[in-house]
Amino acid sequence: MGLFDKFKKNKELVEQLTEAESVEVSEQSVESTERTPENESEPEEAVESKPEKEHGFFKRLVSGLTKTRNQLTESLNQIFHGHSELDDDFYDELEEVLIMADLGLETTDKIIEDLKRRVKEYKIKEVEPCRELLNNIIRDQMMVDDSAYDFEEQKTVMLIIGVNGVGKTTSIGKLAAQYKKRGKKVMMAAGDTFRAAAIDQLKTWAERAGVDIIAQQEGSDPAAVVYDAVQAAKARNVDILLCDTAGRLHNKKNLMDELAKMRRIIEKEYPEAHCETLIVLDGSTGQNALEQARQFSEVTDLNGIILTKLDGTAKGGIAIAIQAELDVPVKYIGVGEKIDDLQRFDPTHYVEALFADLDVRSEVEMLIEEDEESWQ
Length: 376
Fold this sequence. Notes:
Radius of gyration: 23 Å
Largest sheet: 8 strands, mixed
Order of helices and strands: HHHHHHHEHEHEHEHEHEHEEHH
């Protein structure tokens, strides 16, 4: 079964989910209840099986990308139904649609050139086969290497960076809770010492997840907090140390210098541990998120991206642009406030959710349906 056929199935799934939405409201409320240390051991709060969790997350992803999907697929349907041959007008209109979906000029150029290359290679003469080609190209550009998550299975210090308001602290809390559920020994470090609220918020997440936290007073040296956390992590045989950082603006050199200092401490004091630097970006900000990632990548190595707030945004195409332009993989995406609403990034699921409403009928099928409706 080709990816094109999968989109037909997922279109049917979206319709089923829409019909069942009102019936499942109460069930979703129960399933999405966040687990706390107090209720974690109760049998009725058992962790969902993997297939159920993946299906539930796909439902939330489909729902979260509704605005992006509506905007994108409506325009794509018009293009594919409005052109009978692969001429310059077809490619120009397709380019405009992709740019408007926040894929950006550079990423769109890559997609169009790749599409033209494959059309020539496969000797395609008609518009219809280009639907599947387009979907495959976008999916291929977003693929994450199998080794991208190897750090989760070894001693790791994770530096979570990004500007204020993108969801850094919340992402740390969700990851900590998920890692612990998988049997990992987890610790947090409250490295954002510029805001007392950030320290308190991280302490709340540590308590909720049932993990240790290393924190000092507001105004303390962030690098000193990381140093203490690294020593504690080694002494307590911690598997994953999650370090919060200040809301660093890319034009603040002193804050960037502080980040570099943290990395030097980790590499010197804990050389046997893997250092994973993830930047958290707000997916709802579109091209601004891409610019933040670009600026951060100029001053520090980035191992991956946590893309948050994709629920309800019309700028979901930015995930494609970020990975294609910076060659930095999106490793986690967030589509809601619950702990399980942050998951590993699956490019196939993402593209399926993004194009779930794409009209995959041929012109003959559309005419047949119109004739049937006229006789009713």
